[in-house]
Design a protein that fits this description.
This protein is an all-alpha fold. It is built from 1 helix and no strands. Helix content is 36%, strand content 0%.
């Protein structure tokens, strides 16, 4: 268990692991996000 504040900066958030989410994550990685 983590106690305290955790701050994470994001440029892209992919929700879902289906075919669309998989392609979106791969493409974001290719673009450097």
């Amino acid at each position: 268990m983590v106690v305290g504040d955790v701050t994470t900066g994001t440029d892209v958030l992919v929700i879902g692991g289906g075919p669309g989410g998989y392609v979106a994550a791969i493409r974001a990685g290719q673009l450097g996000h």
